[in-house]
Amino acid sequence: MAHTPKAGRLRSRQVVQELLSPAGIEINGDRPFDIRVLNDAFYDEALRRGSHGAFDAYVNGWWESDRLDELTAKVLSNGLDIPASTRLSLLFASLSARLFNRQGRKGSQRAVKQYDLGNDLYEAVLDRRMVYTCARWKDAANLDEAQEAKLELVAKKVGLRPGMRVLDIGCGWGGFAQYAAQTHGVSVVGVTLSREQHEFGKALCAGLPVDLRLMDYRDLNDEAFDAVVVVGCLEHVGRKNHRRFMKIARQCLKPDGLMLLQTIGANNPALVTDPWLEQNIFPNYMLPTAAQIAAAAEDVMIIEDWENFGADYDKTLMAWFENLNANWSNIRHNYDDRFYRTWKCYLLTCAGGFRARMNQLWQIVFSPSGVLGGYASVR
């Protein structure tokens, strides 16, 4: 019997359903986390290109789910495999990562363009201080409180006191610099590669002892600081640059100073990351592992403290999505529906990933040569 297009589609649907069944997900089921297929082209796209194809199909409007976050958490918690047809592309991406430093100066310039999409977008999504990293939800009732709790935790962990001089590498829109200067009486030098962040941050911190600089961290000289803060930057530094990054931070830190590093962490080493997320949201990003961070710090700095509150990123991402949804009508004239679906996919699938504990969120405290008497952990 001749193969018909209809028969091929039915077979593709059957294969996709078989892949999803271990996670308890049904095609066109009636539960919030089930998939509703609106265009049968979704099946072949998902089978041919794995998660990358499935997410592109979502942006195209070919399928829907009322709880994309929970769908993702179920898929990842059950370890569903990538279709074999996508593995060749991952092999080539891994080879490229081995041969080239994708987070060099040019790669970093390309990556930072994501933060220049428009401050109106980030103002709509983030908290009042424009902090684009994981919040701390312990004892917090909303996103503003959770982000301030995280900023205060950072300040306490490096022991901020009035008169100290602080370096903020990857300062974003200046949220930490503003908070530290206002509430702890310190002066702050912040560095970013994003022009939009730089201009916004200068206005945000006007009148405060804050110096925000548009520059690459590799151009930091031997200025001395009482504390160094790195929040949400190491993900863009790349494995090949970790050790150099640590050495530069160490050179900027006074002998009795402390550095706090906050980063998303990967459970397993990988040369490539999610291809859809890299293409659409974070170009050239690479999540470090615990072993990679420890190796980069070896003979450079001492690890004094290591805290993991990765589950808080789930809540943070869900809060960002709620803000995007609530404020979309105010900014949609600058974007389009595909952009909205891209960001919805990004925020909700990442929330599901943290819910499944596939990634972690670490705060690590370093000292140049060890705190005499020991470091008193702050929680």
Protein described:
The chain has about 375 residues and is α/β, with parallel strands linked by helices. It folds into two domains: about 5-95, no CATH class; about 105-365, 3-Layer(aba) Sandwich (Rossmann fold). The protein contains 14 helices and nine strands. It has helices at about 5-20, 40-60, 70-75, 85-100, 105-110, 120-125, 145-155, 175-185, 195-205, 240-250, 275-280, 290-295, 310-330, 335-355; strands spanning about 35, 65, 165-170, 185-190, 210-215, 225-230, 255-265, 300-310, 360-365. The strands form two sheets. It has a seven-stranded mixed β-sheet with strand order 5-4-3-6-7-9-8, with helices on both faces. α1 packs across α2 and α7 crosses α8.
Summarize this structure briefly.
With 379 residues, the protein is of the alpha/beta class. Helices cover 45% and strands 15% of the residues. The chain has 2 domains: 89 residues, no CATH class; 263 residues, Vaccinia Virus protein VP39 (Rossmann fold), CATH 3.40.50.150.
Question: What is this structure's SSE topology?
Answer:
Blueprint: H1 5-20, E1 36-37, H2 41-59, E2 63-64, H3 68-77, H4 87-99, H5 105-111, H6 119-125, H7 143-157, E3 165-169, H8 175-184, E4 187-192, H9 195-204, E5 210-214, E6 225-231, H10 242-252, E7 253-266, H11 275-280, H12 290-297, E8 302-308, H13 311-331, H14 337-355, E9 359-367
Parallel strand pairs: 3-4, 3-6, 4-5, 6-7
Antiparallel strand pairs: 1-2, 7-9, 8-9
